[in-house]
Amino acid sequence: MSDGFRQEARAWLEENLTGEFAAARGLGGPGREHEGHELRVAWERHLGAAGWTCLGWPKEYGGRDASLDEQVIFHEEYARAGAPARVGHIGEGLIGPTILAFGTEEQKRRFLPPIRSGEELWCQGYSEPDAGSDLAGVRTRGVLTGGAWAVTGQKVWTSLAHVADWCFVLARTEPGSQRHRGLSYLLVPMDQPGVQVRPIVQMTGTSEFNEVFFDGARTDEANILGAPGEGWRVAMATLGYERGASTLGQQIGFRRELESVIETARRTGAAEDPVLRDRLVRSWLELEVMRFNALRVMTSLSAGEPGPEVSIAKLYWSEWHRRLGELAQAVQGRAGLLADGAPYDLNDLQRLYLFSRADTIYAGSSEIQRDIIAERTLGLPKDRAPRAAETHRASP
């Protein structure tokens, strides 16, 4: 059964990554989301039309009811084929599973089909200037008036907001509430007068992150997941999906990056250095461990809401990726210190090094993840100074 599925996926990818889509191979990923966006949107819709998106979703909502093995196989074959980074991963991997878990039947019928088909793209409205890893400190307000929620506030580090059609927003809807209470999970359309998006230029020179300003932006009263005031619970479930199944898709890019680092090390002779060779081998082994840990997290998610495994996974991949960026610079030697051209033309490995510096901060800093693991898994006492117990994702 699995062999047949693998052959089907491999044959379809080989047949379809040709013609206009041949140029999409290898495009996109962290720090490179600007690459071939329109072409990758077309590819996303092509995938959806052929039934290769949202594989694990129930058939009644457009999925295949694919098993965990089949989902893993598809990710592996997708990576092997050099297919482009997905532009719909926030919709398929984060909000889609959340709607399946918490949405009404009407919400499922409205929002899931355009996610599956690639017709609507999503972004995540969690982070704020004063609410980073401490997500419970959000100040964005949602006021119910005239049959609609009016949303006012600022979100930051919002990945792909400049191309998104919808944003799932964590907002404070109960006046005077504090911390985890009084929050609601709202689904807000981006194309309206009350929404302003400002790109944030990163040290890679690209701008996939954004500030988003809501000034009375409106969304229908029905566009809320869960009941008013239950937003924290829904938001934490989203984080579990993000750090579970979607990390398998993320690892497509990781494997491609590692292969590029190894190839560069061979070309420059760095692979002959015993210390660098040891670091290359260690990176490969750790990526294999990462894959198996992601499968473990997916198994736990299928049994219920996320546990501490999601924090272990986030801590692991972010620290690994930062080390890979440092290794990418090391194997280039002195050439890695020079831009390829003016004014700031970076190669892929330089971009990897710069972008991966942020990995241990966004999506919940490593310090916060270690606190969660210590307190919830190991049963150690909490810090005397209160710190956030949960964290969030602010990036792709």
TrEMBL record:
Keyword flag Flavoprotein: yes
Pfam families according to UniProt: Acyl-CoA_dh_1, Acyl-CoA_dh_M, Acyl-CoA_dh_N
Domain Acyl-CoA dehydrogenase/oxidase N-terminal residue range list: 5-119
Cofactors required: FAD
Cited Gene3D superfamilies: Acyl-CoA dehydrogenase/oxidase, N-terminal domain, Butyryl-CoA Dehydrogenase, subunit A, domain 2, Butyryl-CoA Dehydrogenase, subunit A, domain 3
Domain Acyl-CoA dehydrogenase/oxidase C-terminal, chain residue ranges per copy: 229-377
Oxidoreductase recorded as keyword: yes
Annotated Acyl-CoA oxidase/dehydrogenase middle domain residues: 123-215
Taxonomy, superkingdom: Bacteria
SUPFAM superfamilies per UniProt: Acyl-CoA dehydrogenase C-terminal domain-like, Acyl-CoA dehydrogenase NM domain-like
Keywords: FAD, Flavoprotein, Oxidoreductase
Similarity-based family: Belongs to the acyl-CoA dehydrogenase family.
Name of the protein in question: Acyl-CoA dehydrogenase family protein
Species assigned in the record: Sphaerisporangium corydalis
